[in-house]
């Protein structure tokens, strides 16, 4: 079954804008809970579903992801039949509006056409969830629909998921609308940018979209087609943990939500491993002066201070008397003795030793740039 | 053999019976250490970091797990086209029956055909059950510079304890003049580490004649080295000063784990230029719950702590539930301490569960307790 489809992991869409972090890397390369990258979720979902031909599209800052994904060997994509392809797409610096997924696909159309699989499953690089795609593909084929779209029901859409699209779904699971979330209702079906169709339809849609508008993304075009009721488009509801990492706030909240054991159990299930590039980092050392509560600690850390309700990345040092609360500290950062942090996102290799206080609140976050010295 | 002209053979056949149930099902080199490692990761990583590409691992006792573990050479980066980790178990050959390895030297003799395939200039012999970081390339440089026929790594031990070791007596130049196995009255404090470099062509000849000698124990220490000394060959001692542990007993395995808690521990596993490679679990990072207390702990990814942990090493995917106490203890991978249980001065073997409210070990026990079976809870 699984071999009937290949997978696409999209490049970072225009509407994703994570302050600071995105200056250095695309959304898929954001560190998640100190150990994973966001793109590990779609790629692991594909691999675990037996979908082992995967195309990953990259636009800005490709290095972070080419390094991370490599040949796919860490994702159990290492037999001769498996293939992880990385496509670097022309980034239109002169005018951001041209940067669409459709232009990515047009650049590489020959590589899509040559794949033998009948179906394509598209998943975004910036959303975090667990999904068995082979189940979804079965459901799609049985339903006879042209396109199956995955959505998640939320009750906080007035002030969350504002960079996402929301869809209307009727009792028969037919998709009736698809538009940007304008924050006018709490209860919404958020489109997970995940959909299945035949490869032939996909290629046809890519070409039609380009003719319709050079600035349209595939999901914008889907909105048009849904209005016209031209195709049979079905929605399938996703259950379980779901996060969209599309701004600094959602990056922060999705990370800290993993401190809830219920979410941990939901996203990380035995037998459905989330793979990542391994680094062979040694275990972490927590010294006698340290106090650590309600936190996640990656490997290689030296912790002598107080850590509470925080995520600590690999090889982070937290000095004596330092207090880190409600924060995310990324790999190799150093928090000096006596430094107090609240509600901060500290990017990789930053050193905070001279500045003794950075105190924000979870709804007004602070951000420290990569490799900055404070 | 493009990159180096030295091939390494790791002797990993020993059972390590003083580790009791820990080695019932696996050989000593496969025993867990330091949260995420197995002991054999140390010599293998040392080889990889020293630029040695071809490594033979000689296994015998309970070798299924060890064989499959070391065969995946990719863990240590030893899987490129001109590199490899090869598992060498005793095998039946056309001109001889199936023989177990009769001694350390015999294990090499039985694999002369394997070594000849690579035609190395030098052969490095290692033990699979020691914890240390060492650059074998530097040792080879000393061997070549001094024109030695064999080089033996030694480390100074307290003279009082020297009678427990194989002792190398050297002259002023550092040449070995005498080898004494566990001498009653040691003349030197330089103990052999069981690490040898030989010129392969010379050793090959010696091994072939040793194989035919019915009186030989086929052992490097007892037979090969004394023969070379008797032949007036140049044997030199290569001094090693860093951290080195032979974790032969439960107490010494526990101590070696506790060494990692010291801020200035000599082994320093965080050195980015000399990583110890192992398998990384696809698990969450370590999770410390809101009611947890951790005080002087070495912990790795996948551990979950909701209770109290002090002076302890927590291995991959081990769990300490709410209200439980773990003190001066090593939890091996997948070990689980349930609510309200108390574990003190113990090694809890991999996968073992300590039931709710159970009490294991005590603060004033003379020896460390090995818990290798599930302990029932107390309701």
Please explain how this structure is put together.
The complex is a heterodimer of chains A (374) and B (379). Chain A is 22% helix and 28% strand. With 374 residues, chain A is an alpha/beta fold. In chain A, the strands form 7 sheets. A 7-stranded mixed sheet of chain A has the order 5-4-1-6-11-8-12. A 5-stranded parallel sheet of chain A has the order 14-17-20-23-26, with no helix packed on it. A 5-stranded parallel sheet of chain A has the order 15-18-21-24-27, with no helix packed on it. In chain A, helix 3 crosses helix 6. The longest helix of chain A is centred in the middle third of the chain and has 14 residues, at 199-212. Chain B has helices at 41-49, 64-71, 104-109, 112-118, 136-145, 200-212, 220-230, 250-259; strands at 6-11, 32-33, 37-38, 54-58, 84-88, 122-127, 130-132, 150-156, 166-170, 176-181, 190-199, 235-239, 244-246, 286-288, 293-299, 304-305, 308-314, 319-320, 325-331, 336-337, 342-348, 353-354, 359-360, 369-371. The longest helix of chain B is centred in the middle third of the chain and has 13 residues, at 200-212. Chain B contains 8 helices and 24 strands. Chain B is elongated and about 70 Å long. The termini of chain B are far apart. The A-B interface holds A 33-35, 73, 258-259, 261, 264, 268, 273-276, 278-280, 282-288, 290-300, 302, 311-312, 315 and B 34-36, 74, 260-261, 263, 269-270, 275-278, 280, 282-301, 313.
């Amino acid at each position: 079954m699984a071999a009937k489809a290949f997978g696409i992991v999209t490049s970072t869409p225009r509407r994703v804008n994570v302050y600071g972090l995105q200056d250095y890397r695309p959304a898929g390369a954001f560190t998640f809970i100190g150990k994973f990258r966001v793109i590990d979720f779609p790629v692991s979902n594909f691999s675990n579903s037996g979908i082992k031909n995967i195309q990953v599209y990259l636009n800005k800052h490709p290095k972070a992801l080419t390094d991370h994904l490599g040949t796919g060997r860490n994702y159990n994509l290492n037999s001769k039949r498996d293939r992880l392809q990385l496509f670097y797409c022309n980034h239109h610096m002169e005018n951001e509006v041209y940067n669409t997924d459709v232009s990515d696909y047009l650049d590489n159309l020959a590589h899509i056409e040559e794949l033998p699989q009948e179906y394509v499953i598209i998943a975004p690089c910036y959303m975090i969830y667990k999904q068995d795609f082979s189940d979804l593909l079965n459901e799609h084929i049985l339903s006879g629909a042209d396109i199956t779209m995955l959505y998640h029901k939320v009750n906080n859409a007035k002030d969350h998921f504002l960079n996402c699209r929301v869809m209307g779904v009727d009792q028969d699971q037919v998709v009736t609308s698809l538009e940007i979330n304008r924050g006018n209702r709490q209860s919404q079906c958020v489109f997970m940018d995940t959909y299945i169709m035949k490869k032939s339809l996909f290629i046809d849609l890519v070409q039609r979209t380009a003719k319709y508008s050079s600035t349209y993304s595939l999901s914008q075009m889907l909105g048009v087609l849904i209005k016209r009721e031209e195709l049979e488009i079905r929605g399938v509801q996703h259950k379980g943990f779901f996060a969209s990492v599309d701004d600094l706030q959602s990056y922060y909240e999705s990370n800290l939500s993993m401190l809830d054991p219920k979410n941990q159990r939901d996203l990380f299930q035995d037998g459905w491993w989330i793979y990542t590039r391994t680094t062979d980092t040694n275990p972490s050392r927590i010294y006698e002066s340290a106090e650590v509560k309600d936190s996640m600690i990656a490997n290689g850390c030296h912790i002598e201070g107080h850590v509470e309700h925080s995520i600590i990345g690999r090889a982070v040092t937290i000095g004596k008397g330092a207090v880190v609360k409600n924060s995310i500290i990324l790999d190799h950062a150093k928090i000096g003795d006596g430094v107090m942090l609240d509600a901060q996102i500290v990017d990789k290799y930053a050193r905070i030793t001279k500045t003794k206080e950075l105190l924000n609140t979870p709804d007004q976050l602070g951000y420290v740039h990569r490799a900055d010295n404070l | 053999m493009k990159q180096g002209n030295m091939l390494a053979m790791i002797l990993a056949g020993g059972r390590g019976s003083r580790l009791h149930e820990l080695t019932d099902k696996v050989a000593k080199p496969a025993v867990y250490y330091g949260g995420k490692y197995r002991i054999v990761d140390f010599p293998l990583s040392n080889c990889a970091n020293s630029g040695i590409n071809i490594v033979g691992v000689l296994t015998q006792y309970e070798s299924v797990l060890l064989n499959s573990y070391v065969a995946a050479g990719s863990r240590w980066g030893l899987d490129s086209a001109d590199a490899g980790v090869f598992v060498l178990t005793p095998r039946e050959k056309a001109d001889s029956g199936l023989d177990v390895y009769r001694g350390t030297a015999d294990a090499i003799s039985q694999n002369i055909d394997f070594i000849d395939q690579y035609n190395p200039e030098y052969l490095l012999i290692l033990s699979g059950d020691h914890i240390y970081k060492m650059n074998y390339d530097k040792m080879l440089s000393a061997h070549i510079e001094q024109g030695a026929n064999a080089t033996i790594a030694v480390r100074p031990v307290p003279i009082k304890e020297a009678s427990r070791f194989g002792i190398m007596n050297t002259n002023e130049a550092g040449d070995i003049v005498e080898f004494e196995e566990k001498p009653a009255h040691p003349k030197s404090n330089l103990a052999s580490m069981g690490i040898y470099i030989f010129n392969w062509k010379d050793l090959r000849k010696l091994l072939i004649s040793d194989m035919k000698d019915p009186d030989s124990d086929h052992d490097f220490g007892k037979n090969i080295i004394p023969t070379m000394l008797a032949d007036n060959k140049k044997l030199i001692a290569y001094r090693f000063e860093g951290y080195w542990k032979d974790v032969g007993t439960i107490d010494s395995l526990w101590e070696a784990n506790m060494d990692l808690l010291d801020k200035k521990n000599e082994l320093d596993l965080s050195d980015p230029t000399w990583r110890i490679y192992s398998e990384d679990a696809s698990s969450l990072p370590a999770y410390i719950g809101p009611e947890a207390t951790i005080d002087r702990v070495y912990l790795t990814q996948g551990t979950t702590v909701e209770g109290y942990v002090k002076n302890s090493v927590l291995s991959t995917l081990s769990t300490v539930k709410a209200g439980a106490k773990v003190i001066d203890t090593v939890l091996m991978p997948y070990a689980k301490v349930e609510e309200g249980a108390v574990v003190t001065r113990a090694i809890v073997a991999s996968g073992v569960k300590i039931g709710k409210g159970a009490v294991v070990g005590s603060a004033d026990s003379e020896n460390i307790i090995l818990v290798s079976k599930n302990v029932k809870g107390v309701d």
